[in-house]
Amino acid sequence: xxxxxxxxxxxxxxxxxxxxxxxxxxxxxxxxxxxxxxxxxxxxxxxxxxxxxxxxxxxxxxxxxxxxxxxxxxxxxxxxxxxxxxxxxxxxxxxxxxxxxxxxxxxxxxxxxxxxxxxxxxxxxxxxxxxxxxxxxxxxxxxxxxxxxxxxxxxxxxxxxxxxxxxxxxxxxxxxxxxxxxxxxxxxxxxxxxxxxxxxxxxxxxxxxxxxxxxxxxxxxxxxxxxxxxxxxxxxxxxxxxxxxxxxxxxxxxxxxxxxxxxxxxxxxxxxxxxxxxxxxxxxxxxxxxxxxxxxxxxxxxxxxxxxxxxxxxxxxxxxxxxxxxxxxxxxxxxxxxxxxxxxxxxxxx
Length: 350
Ligand code: KG4
Ligand code: ZN
Prior knowledge:
Elements: E1 4-9, E2 14-22, E3 27-36, H1 48-70, E4 79-85, H2 89-106, E5 109-114, H3 115-126, E6 134-139, E7 144-151, E8 154-160, H4 166-176, H5 183-191, H6 215-227, H7 231-261, E9 265-269, H8 276-287, E10 293-296, H9 299-302, H10 306-318, E11 338-339
Parallel strand pairs: 1-4, 4-5, 6-9, 8-11, 9-10
Antiparallel strand pairs: 1-2, 2-3, 6-7, 7-8
Helix pairs in contact: 1-2, 3-10, 4-5, 4-6, 4-7, 5-7, 6-7, 7-8
The structure holds 5'-O-[(R)-(carboxyoxy)(hydroxy)phosphoryl]adenosine and zinc ion.
């Protein structure tokens, strides 16, 4: 088993490298560099072509910096873990080709990692005692997944979104409100000054099952924005009402999943889990009543980063898995170990 793993993440607009060092069961984060591509801000969203180019320019220096932070040279690295998908295919390709070249030239092990499995492993970097069974809510710009995790590597899908991902809803509503990309942090900042009683938005599909739908909520915000005679005045209150609606839906379903499975731990992951408001609401509804412990990584590890990729790769390498030189970027990579959602959630209705 390798004891130094270099992680590489380039699936979207963060160029990141990380180094994990240590014992088989308890690797430590020795270096982490996350370079956010600011270029997309002026376009109000990620421009795939620009993302690929920026990864290509920055990745060698980002890897060097992560190794330097860890105080090791390339020769000490045993394996390279890289995000294989899902994500922007051109962006992924930069990381995959770079990782393959490094591993091939140095005769090191290589492992391709699923980006969302990376998000799931993020809390483990800081909390090595975290262990299944648990329920996981993974919420990012591209995915909204509610999973029953009986064991690492086994993922029973409880529910996903029917339309927009939770982070995507934040980004789209931020655009409606005239806020910069990425929308989530901008909405959270503004919402902190908002009056929660000024507006109220629907909670789509909240009271039944495990699936999500956020596109109607976005339309509801659009209607109120259009009707507003003073958007400047209403903006913080709209941000607050929208955020409250999304978080209420997310946490209600997380709580339902905890009750349905009987698990005593709930994991939050993905970029939306950077939200202090989300972590706070989940802790209030789940931990305070003694229902479940809420495990959430610090924001640096919930946003896209290579530490989580290295950690998930570390786990897969430990199972004896390796990728070969045919490893290719896949925009639609399925989550390994994913078991489909059961057709009914009868037992879990409330
Ligand atoms: O996981 P991530 O960094 O990238 C993807 O894999 O998509 O997630 C990015 C998403 C964006 O939609 C962003 O608006 C959202 O996470 N996000 C937040 C917050 N910080 C980031 N959403 C709500 N509140 C936040 N504080
Ligand atoms: Zn992500």
